[in-house]
Design goal:
Length: 495
């Protein structure tokens, strides 16, 4: 506050001045602050306060109409349940680092998207609220909606710390080709089942399209999606340790040293050397549009979304693995509530609305109505009209109250439910490793893996040289201790 001017020195004027200042000071000073400031639980200054929950999620670049689209959601939810959200988006490339920083520093938030790669560790750190009782008492419709098997798969130590996304909760992996290259190079898509099967079409595409064309484009954050599908990582989020999903003996192994994994790593490295994979893959944070090929977890009709997102006229896809249920597939998409949130009940009610209200579900999945999408059949079928909406539908809520997209099968979600019903169970289904007394080993081994995985899983490094180095450093960081503890826990759990 500025010093009072000497000219305003009379008692009368000072009294009037102080009264005016007091009146101004009684109002919140939010107009001068950033509306997306780090306050996790802001409220409006109206007579009926409406909590605004900070929801951290993952997605693409935020478009110009993002705030307008979120404002429309907030107008709707404020009326329905008296809650708004401030959606904060960590990009695909920065998500790992950003979410770690938020949890490690205690930055305030209310809801956070997470998955099996981080979830158990975040629970062990005390980042998330125990929702076991609250989800049943406060949001019974949400609790009834999600099958018991899916709730069980999300539990840590027998307790619920997140709302699992009930969707293709079993995993089915697909390889997806741009149809124009399928026709041009005579690719026999239905018979593409192994990495080795992809070798010829990839080299044909490379030879025909030129030096700057990469048949298998990659980014650092993922490498080849689904590379470790056949190994159950015990919900540890550390790929180098696991159990073969169909191993009835449930033996914990060093995954990188398994012959099948090493063979596939060698194939990736050969493709990198041959220019099948883009040379900047280990450092590339975001994918380009127009992918000629992608590997993705999906379901019948998912190619319609991939076509829009990638600006490709038509994709052809083939199932190459699954469906399989593991604890990790269930934990592939979760929304947790901060242990420090002032609005745990409100956050749960918001997530319940996401999962039970088709209108809100579609706004979150598709963006601003009339700009990003238009309704074809009420809330049941929509047509996307832009490819810029950044939020990934799989991170938000169930698919089973979300519209199908125009040109997708009308019974798409029924087909997804059938995939879940047909899925075979991993030998470890229901088991989630307790890392309460192993936090140091988990943190240290994950740090080692994070140091090398980008280069290894994009084919940039020679696995015959790199894997022994990685395993040696993992052992020094506590890998053997983790493997021994995992085996003991598994043996006791399935006794």
């Amino acid at each position: 506050m500025k010093k009072p001017l000497k000219l305003l020195s009379t008692a009368c004027v000072l009294t009037l001045l102080m009264s005016a200042l007091a009146a101004c000071g009684s109002k919140s000073d939010t107009s001068a602050s950033d509306p997306k400031a780090s306050d996790a639980s802001k409220t409006s200054s109206s007579s009926t306060d409406v909590p605004t929950l900070v929801w951290w999620t993952i997605g693409g670049q935020v478009p110009n109409n993002f705030d307008k689209a979120v404002a429309a959601m907030n107008e709707y939810t404020a009326e329905k349940i008296g809650v708004k959200v401030d959606i904060k988006v960590a990009s695909w490339g920065e998500w790992d680092t950003k979410i770690n920083t938020i949890v490690n520093t205690g930055e305030p938030f209310d809801i956070m998207f997470t998955n099996g790669s981080k979830y158990n560790q975040q629970v062990a750190m005390g980042a998330f609220a125990d929702l076991t009782d609250l989800v049943q008492s406060e949001t019974p419709d949400l609790y009834k909606l999600i099958p018991e098997k899916v709730w069980d798969g999300s539990k840590v130590g027998g307790k619920i710390y997140s709302v699992p996304t009930y969707k293709d909760s079993s995993l089915t992996q697909y390889w997806v080709f741009d149809h124009k290259y399928v026709e041009k190079y005579g690719i026999d898509v239905p018979n593409m089942k192994t990495l080795k099967d992809l070798d010829k079409p990839f080299h044909d595409m490379k030879a025909g399209e030129g030096k700057s064309f990469y048949p298998l484009p990659m980014t650092q954050s993922e490498g080849l999606n689904g590379f470790f599908n056949e190994y159950d990582d015990m919900a540890l989020g550390l790929a180098p340790i696991g159990v073969k999903a169909d191993d009835a003996s449930r033996k914990v192994v060093s995954v990188l040293e398994q012959p099948d994994v090493m063979e596939n790593l060698k194939m990736l490295h050969k493709w990198y050397q041959d220019g099948i994979i883009n040379p900047d893959a280990p450092t590339k944070p975001e994918p380009d549009k127009g992918k000629p090929f992608l590997s993705a977890q999906g379901f019948p009709g998912a190619e319609v979304s991939w076509q829009v997102n990638n600006g490709v006229e038509k994709y052809d896809m083939v199932q190459n693995y699954g469906p399989i249920y593991t604890t990790t597939t269930i934990q592939g998409s979760l929304n947790a509530i901060s242990a420090n949130s002032k609005y745990k009940k409100e956050a749960l009610k918001y997530l319940e609305l996401v999962n039970t209200d088709p209108k809100l579900r579609n706004m979150l999945a598709f963006g601003e109505e009339g700009v990003d999408y238009k309704k074809v059949d009420g809330e049941k079928v929509v047509e996307r009209t832009t490819d810029t909406w950044p939020l990934a539908a799989y991170t938000q809520g169930t698919f089973f109250n979300m519209a199908t997209q125009k040109d997708a099968p009308k019974d798409q979600w029924e087909q997804v439910k059938k995939l879940n019903e047909q899925a075979f169970a991993s030998s470890l289904l229901g088991f989630s490793m307790d890392i309460t007394n192993l936090s140091t080993e988990v943190a240290n081994t994950k740090a080692v893996w994070d140091k090398y995985r980008y280069e290894l899983l994009t084919g940039a490094s020679d696995p015959e040289k790199m894997v022994p180095k990685i395993v040696s450093e993992l052992k020094a960081a506590g890998m053997d201790t983790l493997m021994k503890a995992a085996q003991e826990q598994i043996d006791a759990f399935f006794k």
